[in-house]
Structure formats: structure tokens, C-alpha cells
């Protein structure tokens, strides 16, 4: 093949036009292969130089190599343009609006349920007083739930508990869902010798449902057994707990006679509060009173049921609703919302997962 100047100009014009028309890096690569590849049009021209005479090679050699160099430069320039255009398009497509708030991590977005938070607060307070946490089964026998706690068979107080009874297999003892956490008192007395200082947070079950009652609720039980425990000790423990839990420097308490089968004497406890502001209750101030818990000295029959001699040991116990004191402290109007699993409610009333309650750092900060 004899390449003349006219043919080279036509080929160069065609290649430069193809280079200019390439729309992306893939297209420009196709043009490069068609021109400079192993069988490309410019490469084929270079192969003809070997068959030419010396005179022809002196003329055609510089012309063909010049064509190759110009095409190579045009390819490089167009490739750079396309690369810059692709980067610019990507920057536009992937633009970040830095004015939007950063999404929170799961640890920051998650919330601890108020019941879990209050149980942690209770554990922190009583743990500082030297109490241990005790637990027991949710499904109990009639003996532990009633009889051992001085509820004789047929006693009217059994009817106050609206119990969920479970159907028993033939020949087996009927069981029930515990109506209070008090059975753990008996189990603890059977398992260890005094002195005993325990608190028992846990789930309990009764057939009741309204704004302040649910079929399943949480209760806190406390028990102290030793040789010298008395009402004065009980008053101090309860007063210190209420001050720490409601985070007030001082408050007044009022004890009223009451009746519980498992304590004698039995007392209801009211604490000082102020209800003068609509929808708000403040503890440790004002002239109003609010019932907060029940307590009393452990009944001798309960001590005997736990395997202890009431002539040698005595003690006191108390109980309160964890859900109720959570409502009072954090201003929640309806107990049923605790169990609705509404993420919006939990986001409003829940607690940050890494903010653990401590007495020195603040229980609810």
C-alpha cells in the first residue's frame, strides 16, 4: 500500500472526527484501538514502511509517524476531557447536603424503657444501703403465693387479688400467676439464714385493667430479717429510699394503720407532696399527702412458714408498684401506655442507654 499526503489527510480528518465524537471513555478507547491498535488504520500504515524504497521511506516515514503522534495527542486530550466531565457529573449526582442533620447512631437513637430505668434506680439506691436483689418464678404454687404468707384457705383476702389460676393436670397441684412478689420472701428465708436484706423487683399478675391498673404490672418488695429489726429501722429505710428516688433533700412521711395478712402491725405510708400546680405533683414540699406504699413487721406465721423461729428473729417488709412510682416521678398519665410498644411514646419518655443511674451522678440525669 502506497500512502500519499492526500490519503493521510483524509485518514487524519476521519480519526480526529471520531475522537471528537466520542461521548465517553469507553468510546474513546474504541477509537484508539481502531487507529493505533495492532490492526488499527495507522498501525497498518506503519507496517508498509518496510516494503518501501529508501527514497519513499524518507518521505512517508515522517508523514505517517507525524499522523500517529497527532492522533495520540488528540486521543489523550479527549480522554482527559471525558474523564473531567465524568468526575464533574459524579460530583453533581453525589452531592451531600451538609445542612441536613447527621443521622444518630443506634446507641444514641435507642431508648431504655422507663420501667427498666426505674428498676435500675431502685437497685442503685438499695444497693447503696447494703441490700441484695432477689428473684423468683412468675408461676407459683398456692402455698408460696397465699398459704405461706398467712392467707389461710378460704380467707377473704384471697379474693382481693383477682388471681389468674392455671389449669392443673390430673393429680398435680394447681398453679397460678403470682399476684405479688412476696412469695420470694418465703423462698429466700428457706434458702438462707438471717440476716436477710433483699429487694425483689418483678412482674406480677392480677385480673384488672384501667388507666392505673394492668393485668401484668411490676412490683417492688423489700424484706429485712434479723434479731433486732424494728419499725424505726423500717421508717429510716423507706424515708431514705423516697428521698433518693424522688431526688429531694427531705420529705415528711405519714404512717397509717392498715391490714395485710403477712405483716403485723401493718401500715400504709403517705409522703408529703404539693398538688397546687395543675397536672403536676411535687414531692418534699406542700401540705398534701399521697399514698406511696404498704409495709409492716413480718407476721410470726410468715416467719414460721419460712423456717425461722419468731421468738429468735423478727423483720419488716414493704411493697410498692414500680409502674406507679414511675408514673409519679416522670409524669406519665396512663399506665396502659407502658405496654403499648409505641415508639413515639418510648422516644419521649425513654432514657439514653448509656446514662446509667448512680447516686453520685444523679438517678435520672
TrEMBL record:
Binds 2 magnesium ions per tetramer. Gene3D superfamilies: Bira Bifunctional Protein, Domain 2 (3.30.930.10). GO terms for molecular function: phenylalanine-tRNA ligase activity. Its cofactor is Mg(2+). It catalyses: tRNA(Phe) + L-phenylalanine + ATP = L-phenylalanyl-tRNA(Phe) + AMP + diphosphate + H(+). It is found in: Cytoplasm. It comes from the Bacteria. Mg(2+) binds at residue 264. Residues 130-353 form the Aminoacyl-transfer RNA synthetases class-II family profile domain. It is an enzyme of class 6 (ligase). Its EC number is 6.1.1.20. CDD domains: PheRS_alpha_core. Tetramer of two alpha and two beta subunits. Belongs to the class-II aminoacyl-tRNA synthetase family. Phe-tRNA synthetase alpha subunit type 1 subfamily. This is Phenylalanine--tRNA ligase alpha subunit. It comes from Mesorhizobium retamae. The gene is pheS.
Amino acid at each position: 500500500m502506497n500512502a500519499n499526503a492526500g490519503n493521510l489527510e483524509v485518514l487524519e480528518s476521519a480519526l480526529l472526527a471520531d475522537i471528537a465524537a466520542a461521548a465517553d471513555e469507553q468510546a474513546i478507547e474504541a477509537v484508539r484501538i481502531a487507529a493505533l491498535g495492532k490492526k488499527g488504520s495507522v498501525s497498518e500504515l506503519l507496517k508498509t514502511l518496510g516494503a518501501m524504497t529508501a527514497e519513499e521511506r524518507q518521505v512517508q516515514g515522517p508523514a505517517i509517524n507525524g499522523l500517529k503522534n497527532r492522533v495520540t495527542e488528540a486521543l489523550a486530550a479527549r480522554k482527559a476531557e471525558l474523564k473531567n466531565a465524568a468526575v464533574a457529573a459524579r460530583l453533581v449526582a453525589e452531592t451531600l447536603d451538609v445542612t441536613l442533620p447527621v443521622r444518630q447512631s443506634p446507641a444514641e437513637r435507642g431508648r431504655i424503657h422507663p420501667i427498666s430505668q426505674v428498676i435500675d434506680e431502685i437497685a442503685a439506691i438499695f444497693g447503696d444501703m447494703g441490700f441484695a436483689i432477689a428473684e423468683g418464678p412468675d408461676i407459683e404454687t398456692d402455698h408460696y403465693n397465699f398459704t405461706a404468707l398467712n392467707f389461710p384457705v378460704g380467707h377473704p383476702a384471697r379474693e382481693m387479688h383477682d388471681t389468674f389460676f392455671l389449669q392443673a393436670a390430673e393429680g398435680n397441684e394447681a398453679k397460678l400467676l403470682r399476684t405479688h412478689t412476696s412469695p420470694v420472701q418465703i423462698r429466700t428465708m428457706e434458702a438462707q439464714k438471717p440476716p436477710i436484706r433483699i429487694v425483689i423487683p418483678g412482674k406480677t399478675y392480677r385480673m384488672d385493667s384501667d388507666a392505673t391498673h394492668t393485668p401484668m404490672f411490676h412490683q417492688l418488695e423489700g424484706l429485712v430479717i434479723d434479731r433486732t429489726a424494728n419499725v424505726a429501722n423500717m421508717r429510716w429505710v423507706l424515708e431514705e429510699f423516697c428521698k433518693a428516688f424522688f431526688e429531694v433533700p427531705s420529705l415528711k412521711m405519714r404512717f397509717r394503720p392498715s391490714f395485710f395478712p403477712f405483716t403485723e402491725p401493718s401500715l400504709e405510708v403517705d409522703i408529703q407532696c404539693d398538688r397546687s400546680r395543675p397536672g403536676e405533683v411535687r414531692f418534699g414540699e406542700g401540705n398534701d399527702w399521697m399514698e406511696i406504699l404498704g409495709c409492716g413487721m413480718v407476721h410470726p406465721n410468715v416467719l414460721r412458714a419460712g423456717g425461722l423461729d419468731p421468738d429468735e428473729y423478727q423483720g419488716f417488709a414493704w411493697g410498692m408498684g414500680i409502674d406507679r412510682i414511675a408514673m409519679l416521678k416522670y409524669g406519665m398519665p396512663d399506665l396502659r401506655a407502658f405496654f403499648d410498644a409505641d415508639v413515639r411514646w418510648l422516644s419521649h419518655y425513654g432514657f439514653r442507654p448509656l446514662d446509667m443511674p448512680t447516686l453520685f451522678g444523679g438517678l435520672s440525669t
